[in-house]
Design goal:
The complex is a heterodimer.
Chain A: E1 4-7, E2 10-13, H1 19-33, E3 38-41, H2 43-48, E4 57-62, H3 67-79, E5 82-83, H4 92-97, E6 102-106, E7 113-118, H5 122-129, E8 132-136, E9 139-143, H6 146-156, H7 159-172, H8 178-188, H9 191-199
Parallel strand pairs in A: 2-8, 4-7
Antiparallel strand pairs in A: 1-2, 3-4, 5-6, 6-7, 8-9
Helix pairs in contact in A: 6-7, 6-8
Chain B: H1 3-34, H2 37-56, H3 59-82, H4 91-99
Classes of the chains: A alpha+beta, B mainly alpha.
C-alpha cells in the first residue's frame, strides 16, 4: 500500500505517469544531453508526490549557461517539438539572463508548460546543489530536497502553497530530516508557520 | 449589520474553509498511504490530466498565441534588417509593454 516513498534519498513514485510527469521527464532528458544541471521545484514536486491538484506549469531551475549553449538548447528543443508560448524560444538567453523565466511547451500547446529560470538566490542554488532523485515510470528526474520545498512553501504562504506543505509534511513526516527542515524554516523566517504545520 | 460584523463573519468563514481544505489534504494523504497506487494513482491523474485536457481543448487559443508570437518575431526581425539604427525593445521590454505574457 502507498506507492510514494522516500527511500535512501530517492523519491519512489509507483503510480502511472501523468502529463506533467511525461513533460518533466522529456525536458529533463534534453537538459541531460547538454549536461545542464537542473532541478524541478515547487508545486510539481507535491503533485509528483501524490497531491491531488492541478497545475498548468512545472517550475524548473537550471544552472547558469552561456548564450551559445542556450542557442544550442533552443535548437534541440525546437527539433524535439517544443515552442515558447509566451516568448519565442530564441529569446531564451536574454530572458534568463534578465532574471525572467521562459515558458517551454510541446508544440501548439499552452499547457502544460515548463517555466525555466536560472538558479539565482541561495534557496534556488540550494535546491540545485542538494537535489534528490525522483523515480517514476522507470525514469528519473532531479527534484528539490523535500525539507526545503516544505519550508519554502510555508514562506510563499498562499493557500495552495500551505496545502502543498501540509501534503508533503503529512506524507513524509517520518522520513524527513528534522534538522534540515528546521534549518530551512529558520533561514526563511517561517517558525510560526512551521509550528502551525506541526499542529495541523 | 455594520461593515465590521460582515468582515468578522467573512473572516470566520474563510478560517473554517481553510480548516476544511487542510483536513481534506490530510485525508487524501491517509488515503494514498492506505491504498495501492493502482487505486489512488488513476484518481490523482484524473485531477491532474483533466484540467490539462480542458485547457488543450481550447486549441484556438494556442494556435492564436503561436500566430501572435510568430508575427512578433517577424516584426522584430524586420526591424533588425532595416538597419535604421533605431533601438529595438528587448524581449523583456516588449513583454512589459503588453506584447506577450509573462509568469502566471
Amino acid at each position: 500500500m502507498g506507492g510514494v516513498e522516500l527511500r535512501n534519498g530517492t523519491l519512489l513514485v509507483e503510480r502511472e505517469p501523468n502529463q506533467l510527469d511525461e513533460l518533466a521527464v522529456g525536458f529533463s532528458g534534453i537538459l541531460d544531453r547538454f549536461d545542464i544541471e537542473h532541478v524541478f521545484v515547487a508545486g510539481y514536486v507535491s503533485i509528483l508526490a501524490g497531491r491531488a491538484r492541478s497545475t498548468e506549469d512545472i517550475d524548473v531551475l537550471i544552472e547558469r549557461i552561456d548564450g551559445e549553449t542556450a542557442d544550442e538548447l533552443v535548437g534541440t528543443l525546437e527539433e524535439e517539438g517544443f515552442w515558447g508560448p509566451a516568448m519565442p524560444l530564441a529569446s531564451m538567453y536574454e530572458m534568463l539572463d534578465a532574471g525572467d523565466n521562459i515558458w517551454v511547451a510541446p508544440d501548439d500547446r499552452i499547457a502544460p508548460h515548463l517555466e525555466v529560470k536560472f538558479a539565482r538566490d541561495e534557496f534556488d542554488r540550494a535546491a540545485l546543489e542538494n537535489h534528490i532523485t525522483a523515480r517514476i515510470g522507470g525514469e528519473v528526474i532531479p527534484i528539490g530536497p523535500l525539507e526545503l520545498q516544505i519550508a519554502y512553501k510555508l514562506y510563499l504562504g498562499a493557500r495552495t502553497d500551505v496545502e502543498d506543505a501540509v501534503h508533503l509534511y503529512a506524507l513524509f513526516e517520518e522520513s524527513l530530516s528534522v534538522s534540515r527542515l528546521e534549518e530551512w524554516v529558520r533561514r526563511l523566517g517561517v517558525q510560526e508557520e512551521y509550528e502551525r504545520l506541526k499542529r495541523a | 449589520m455594520n461593515d465590521s460584523n460582515v468582515r468578522e463573519r467573512l473572516d470566520a468563514k474563510h478560517g473554517r474553509d481553510h480548516e476544511k481544505r487542510i483536513e481534506a489534504v490530510k485525508r487524501w494523504v491517509e488515503y494514498i498511504k492506505s491504498e495501492s497506487p493502482e487505486t489512488w494513482g488513476p484518481q490523482q491523474n484524473a485531477v491532474v490530466d483533466g484540467q490539462l485536457d480542458a485547457v488543450q481543448g481550447a486549441q484556438t487559443s494556442a494556435t492564436h498565441r503561436k500566430h501572435v508570437v510568430d508575427v512578433a518575431g517577424d516584426i522584430l526581425a524586420t526591424a533588425d534588417d532595416s538597419g535604421d539604427g533605431s533601438e529595438r525593445a528587448s524581449p523583456r521590454e516588449h513583454r512589459e509593454k503588453g506584447s506577450g505574457s509573462g509568469r502566471n
